[in-house]
TrEMBL record:
Record domain HTH luxR-type: where: 144-214
Keyword annotations from UniProtKB, A to Z: DNA-binding, Phosphoprotein, Transcription, Transcription regulation
UniProt keyword annotation of Nucleus present: no
Cytoplasm listed as a keyword: no
Residues in Response regulatory domain copies: 2-122
Record-level Gene Ontology MF annotations: DNA binding
Protein name: Response regulator transcription factor
One GO biological process term: phosphorelay signal transduction system
Modified residues (4-aspartylphosphate): D52
Organism: Pseudoclavibacter chungangensis
PROSITE patterns tied to this protein: HTH_LUXR_2 (PS50043), RESPONSE_REGULATORY (PS50110)
TM regions (residue ranges): none
Length: 223
């Protein structure tokens, strides 16, 4: 896997690079700011770009805005955003482009190296990985979707865990049920969200987007 890193903190930038190299991946570019980011992506064609939300010169939202721009210019580019907080406006826009290959993790909540490496590999494979706190904060600021009112509390829990990027196996473990039960719940929620078989390749992403875009504050699956 070819990885580009854009992070202003030199220790974190070098640390991420070392972790990825030790895991067998290639660092094709390591940048302290977004100034040469677009050119580096064009020239190096990374599989995944790991970007900090806050980058020089203003340390506000340069990184996540760059992520949105790069996704528009390079549709196949996978992006993992790292941040110390949830930048709600641009996070919603980034997620709403209805494609996979996306991650948004909060730095302070990344406590396991193996899970972090798995997250990058999931994103590289076209999956979506979202920190639960990102999901929760986006949920609290969205109106309801009548389709989501069709879901049972258990289906809401399954959908919330899907929104965190968990696999069926991980969902089953979290809810203490079998994978078969999880598969049945997912099939049922797809039907209730009007996501037909013809959209099979994108149904999981579309279901998660519906969940992120429309809060259900009274549901057990809201977090």
């Amino acid at each position: 896997m070819r990885v580009l890193i854009c992070e202003d903190n030199v220790l974190l930038r070098e640390g991420i690079g070392r972790l990825l190299e030790d895991a067998g991946h290639e660092i094709v570019a390591s940048l302290p700011d977004a100034a040469g980011l677009a050119d580096a992506v064009t020239e190096q064609a990374p599989d995944v770009a790991v970007l900090d939300v806050r980058l020089p010169p203003t340390f506000t939202d340069e990184g996540i805005r760059a992520a949105i721009a790069l996704r528009g210019q390079h549709p196949d580019l996978r992006v993992l955003v790292l941040s110390q907080y949830v930048e709600e406006r641009y996070a919603s826009e980034l997620i709403a482009d209805r494609r996979g290959g996306l991650g948004y993790l909060l730095k302070d909540r990344v406590t396991d190296v193996e899970e972090f490496l798995e997250s990058i590999e999931t994103v590289a494979g076209g999956g979506t990985v979202l920190d639960p706190e990102v999901v929760a904060q986006l949920l609290h600021r969205r109106s309801r979707d009548s389709r989501l009112e069709r879901l049972t509390p258990r289906e809401g829990q399954v959908l919330a865990l899907m929104a965190e990027g968990k696999s069926n196996q991980a969902i089953a473990k979290a809810l203490f049920v079998t994978e078969g039960s999880v598969e049945k719940h997912i099939s049922q929620l797809f039907q209730k969200l009007d996501l037909g078989p013809g959209e099979d390749g994108n149904r999981r992403v579309l279901a998660v987007l519906a969940h992120l875009s429309h809060a259900r504050p009274d549901s057990n699956g809201a977090r």
